[in-house]
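Q: MarR family winged helix-turn-helix transcriptional regulator, please. Structure only.
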Amino acid sequence: MTIFARRARASAGRMHPELSLVSYTLLGHLEERGGCRATDLAAHYALDKSTVSRQVAALERAGLIERRLDPEDHRVQVLHLTEAGQEILAQVTRSRRAAFRERLAGWPEEDLVRFAAYLERYNAGQGDPDSA
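A: Structure for MarR family winged helix-turn-helix transcriptional regulator:
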């Protein structure tokens, strides 16, 4: 699992030099949710607000996310992917999928089926797919 995590962190950096695994994960969450508040990110990932604040600031500086006023409550700012953020996320996702396909290309079908079943079982046991 440690090697798997190291590879995931390293692959995000290779795909885009400013995009850590945490940044990639946050961008993916924002895309999936259609935007959310920084406090929602902190709560979802059980992170300190200051940690999320630093990550959000870095993503804003990189032009990958932007803050918009919540139309229902103008006191609240909602984080959304910018067009550049959507493009980077899509690029990294495509690259990661290609890397997975390449690594698994020589595997026999029965091994792939077994591996997929094990991943599904592992993920189902966690409840929240974003928690480790």
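A: Brief note, in case it's useful. The beta strands are 65-70, 73-81.
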